[in-house]
Fold each of these.
Amino acid sequence: MTTLNGPLNKTSIDAATRTEIIESFWPENGSSRYRQDELDWESYFWYYARQCHDALIDQGQHVLARTHQDILDIVHQLEDLTPRDAIKESLRSRLPTRHRPNEDEILDGAIDLAARLHLMVNIAVDNLVISGQAQLKWSSGILRDFLNHHFSEPQVLGNDGIKLEQMFTASNLERIAGIQIKPTDNLADHLRMIDKEDKVVAIFHHASFLNWQNCKIYPDGLGEETLRTLSLIFPQHDKQTREWLKRHPESYRIDKTLLKCDPLQLDDRQIEKFHFWHDRLIILKQAFDQSRPATISQWWYDRRNGVQWYTFWIAVVVLFLTIFFGMVQSIEGALQVYKAFHPTQGLSSGNLRRMPGEYVPSRSGYCPSEDFECDFKGVGSTEAINGDA
């Protein structure tokens, strides 16, 4: 019995079932530069298992599909460019009980689940799944036409002055501009700013899926261009990006193939080369360029303006030295004032003492130190005058 007949709602999917799902969803056609075992499929099957769990969490009251094979049968119809209504009618014949109150709901749920698993796009005709993500409501017609219309929207933003420099990376987005990277499993959310302050951007990180899939449902070139955006933001040989990825709080589920994307040549970095993600790249780049350092660490890493960077840090050094030497002078002055009011005992003239046998100067010459106290204290006294006489 094929492993695809196993239940969808299993928490973990064994290696044999994974391999069969991959080979059935996207038959190898030689277009990928990787072998299947060279790619990181953990992230995809984490997504796969979660999608199935969420769809069947209420004993499958909203989804007809129960096995991996049920999903695969729908995927084949999607790849054959079968209209949604026709797929729906073919599934209706499989219902164990006809004319159920939610019959259309469970048929639509199965079609949408298959589309999400096959394409990694949040397709749904209701609001029951994946809140917080962009939701594409495909209700009729052929899925390829629907996706072509969605991803091929005309460009509305001008690209004058937009340059995608080498410092335009995920690590710099966060440490210079304070823009956080949010990994997403929804291709429709890729490069979308997902908060009101433009400080969080969603990144579709499934490089293994993009490298392996050969869906003809996608618009031509969408997968390849998405990989180029990943190469742009996650440069393969950038040490800082690798260290940043290790520290990311969701690194455990980020596709490790993300850092294996081919590096971009200068010509490939031109904004005009991007069609599907053109406007979102411009918005992200503008948010990066318009950001200003707000913390000391951001001032340190932000070297987009070399003159400004040097000027700032020279001013910081001068300020530090001024404060330091000012403190030194203040402490020295305080010590001098203290010594003036609290002289060290034994060094004042009235308390001066000498060791026995030591000769010290006196008015009449030198005398032993035993006589020094009387002679010293008697300078100018009657006894001293009589002695001289």
Amino acid sequence: MALGARVSAPENRAEQVPTHIARAPEDVATHGELPSYGLVASSAATERTGSHSGIRLVLPPPISANRYWRSFVPRGGSRAITCVSDEARAYKRDALKLALAAGVRSPIRGRVALDVQLYPARPLDWAKRSRKDPDGWADSVRCIDLDNVLKVLLDALKGVAFGDDSWVRSLHAQRMEPDEHGARVVVTISPLVRERVAPELPL
């Protein structure tokens, strides 16, 4: 059950990508708190689907965009320098390793559409919460905000699943209900083919 809101989405996108998907192992599933970054990174499953008919990956949840940059004053310096944090670099490296393990060898060239599904970790008391509030229990589950996910995720996939941010022409992001497969983000990257108008036939 989706709990998020649509940013924008192309029509009939689901038909462009095969529907099967590898899931994260069940031992990543329920620990009350969000699983550690290293645990999920080492356990998340990934799979390539087709030859540029689309790519679907299951990745560990990204770090927050608030931790994407870090600032420091170099020794002997007087001004702070801002650069990409070590955590952000590590997430990008892990995303690349998982994509390579899934069989992704080159990014999709040209325009793409992204579908992002963010799954929070299911707490140990989820059944109790569900009985108390069947329709809204998932709202009380701790989860990183969607807007904080996208910046780090797009940066990690740039040059891996698609060529550049400028080629992302459609983006659909939603927060999902926690399930038995643990905290993860499922990303589907679909090529967008531009339609060409056929020349008019001579009379």
Amino acid sequence: MPLKILRRQIFEKTAPLKFPWGQDVSRTFYVLISPKMCYLKDWFQRWFPIMDDKLRGIYPWIILDAKSKADTSQIITQVWDEAFSAETLNSLIRKGFRLVDTANQIILIGELTEENVVEKLERIYNSFESRKLGSSQTSLYWVGLFLLRKKEEGEIKTPLDFDEFLSWAQEHLHRLFLVDISNGYSEISRQEDLHFLLGQLLYILTRKPMELENEFGGWLRRDSPEEGRCTGFSAISVLTPIDQLLEIALITKGAEVLEEAFFGDFPEERVGGYLNSLLNRTGLSSYETISSLLRRNPKYPLIDPLPGGGEPIWDLEHPEGFTSYLEDLDAKLPGYAEENERSMKEIERILLEDFRYELLDHLNAAISRERGGVGIAERFLEKLKKRMEDISKKIPDESSRPVYPDPLPLIRKLEDKIQKGPRRESVAVRTILLGITALLGALSSRALFDIPSLLFPLFFLLGIGGGLLYWYAWRNRTESLVIKIQRAIREKWDVLMKERCDRVMRGLIPNCISLIEEIESRVKATSCRLKELIDYSKSKHEAPAPMCSAFWMYAIKSSDEMREYSDMIGADISSMATRYLLNERPLELWERTSPSGSEEFNPWEWSLVEKAALMLIPYIGGILDLSVCRILRDSPERAENFAELFRRNSSPFIVLKAGGFGGEVRGTLEISEGGCEDIREMLENSVRGCFSSLSTTDSPTAYRISLFSFMEGIELNSLEVGGGQTCCS
């Protein structure tokens, strides 16, 4: 159930103020013989609550239904044993309570129009008396609170056998209170109104033993059925709907905390901080870094067809094998590139998964740690999407295929050059022969030119040098061609890899953008839903209507009026928003909120508001002190209306025969002494003429003003209980 924890804590705060229990307590057994009145227990315990378990043990409720006949004795034995147990007594004494042993009472509550009323009463009486035999010193008083007649489906139901009931009451009861559906001025049309009258009488009887102590028995017997008399009663109360008022105020202020936490102002640099953090963590910060990530991943190493990452090595010893190697390498480059593309797609998958994880992690961090986190998240996604779109623009279009030099013609040229070029062995032989020839030529020319013998070696060396010069010139031209081939292969490989890398990036970046857009739409939907929740909580939330009747009314009923008191919660919303985020860390909002526009808020959404409201409970002192007098004083017209209601309901609800004796009507106005002087005076002036005597007592709670009316000494034979009459003569 939404707000269950909040409502429980509110009740625990207000319970001691609704009905402050003093140190003196007495045993009181509430016995409901009419099952239809069972909700009276819940109502009574809400407005006159008992929070201590052991104290609750001496104020037990016994509700008998149609199936409880065989269990009556067992139920009564159980509650009796607990109420009179040494454990209960010792526990109460340790807690500072004083038990008034001389005023134990059993209050029988029911409708005389039910079947077998006397039989039920006799069974209950015998069960209690059998328990009393074990403790002969126990004083036990019997009080009856009965609805004399009730209106049901437009007809008046009268007691089935009133004479039989009176006979039983005169023999067993010490005091009898009877309530009819009319008081001579108005008629009760709702059965619940009669029950609320009895509930207020229960409150009076619960307090009487502590007020009178040893005189309690004498007070009861003063109007005894044994002497042929009963008591008429009426009551009307106006109250502060404190639980509902607190709930509305806390939810209203809790919504303000949520609004500040999720949508408060934030510095723009916080958005940039989250953006830079994400890009640094994922590496997807630029075209260049993404390209580098795709080419370098230890899980999926790419093929590098060039040894050590360098160029093919020119082998002078085996030039034919070298050209074959170059041809084979050139032919395999596209295949290697395709295989690397497959690996890069796996790397792309990893990068996309990491990007998703980091993106959600950064969003959660922003929303759960930063005031205005939802606003930060929305701006962060905007800027991230823009950055990805900028990177996407730098990726070359697939239609503009890159151009690279073709190494094959150069390889063919190299093959031709190698085939037509000299071999090293033949060059060596030719060089030696050339040297010898040069030497012989010099010798044969010696006589003719008179060449000195010292120059003969020079001629030999010149011959050798010419051969070597030819060899090295051919080799340099060949190696220059090899370098061109090497560069062409490297350039082709780089272009092929860039083409494949760009192709993968053309998938990665749009996928990142799609992911951003998907999450962005969910964050925006969550933002709208949170605003709906906040708006509803601030201006439309209504607490469950409290049980009320014509005799139990609330000074204010409108939620809008209650909401006006929410500013009495004196908490700093900004600091509370910071504390809320620190304590609650709301995560994955987009996964937990209902779609925007949904009619009902889901339990998790309610928990957001509830947790914010719970944090404000330490600041509700101003509202806890909100008396019903203060509320009435805020609206003089409303106060006058309640004064008129008090006057019109001052007559006890009992119907007498013509000429019957009813005794004097005495009134008791119960109102808080502190700060209610003007309201008390107004009410006293309004109702004083309705009573033979009017007393004013201090109410134990500032939340309630009550007027109780008693007509004592009514002769039982003066009651009008048949013939369907509804008004006294």
